[in-house]
Amino acid sequence: MRSYVYRAEFERGSRRGLVVSFPDVPEAITQGRDIADARAMAEEALGLALLSYPARGLPLPKPRASGKGLVPVAVAPDVAAKLAVLEFFVAAGITKSELARRIGKDEKEVRRILDPKHATKLPALTAALRALGKRLVVGVMEAEAA
Q: What number of other Cβ atoms are within 10 A of residue 38's Cβ?
């Protein structure tokens, strides 16, 4: 199963608040007023940074960082679904026309689905994943404090 969880470092900033960075995703750096704000900002920064990889034609970095003090942060569910579609579309080696045929949509809509900057609704992402031989699974876990 593929998940989009990366470990983050939460550090006190030079002023008030917390600075959050991701060793595996150096583009993702943010800050928050308190731990709750920093976690929310980290989730958003991570999602935006990861979506920039397919837009630049790059593979997503592997989540490798480990160690004491690193906190797992997951991207938002809609971002995870979009990243999965982008990854598995490339891996499938099919054309946009073929994906459009498989999901019964216009190629113009498939271009939007595959655009990292375009917000796509979950049913369209789920249909695309199904057409790519994948199934979206949603999980719930306890919120963690850093």
A: 24
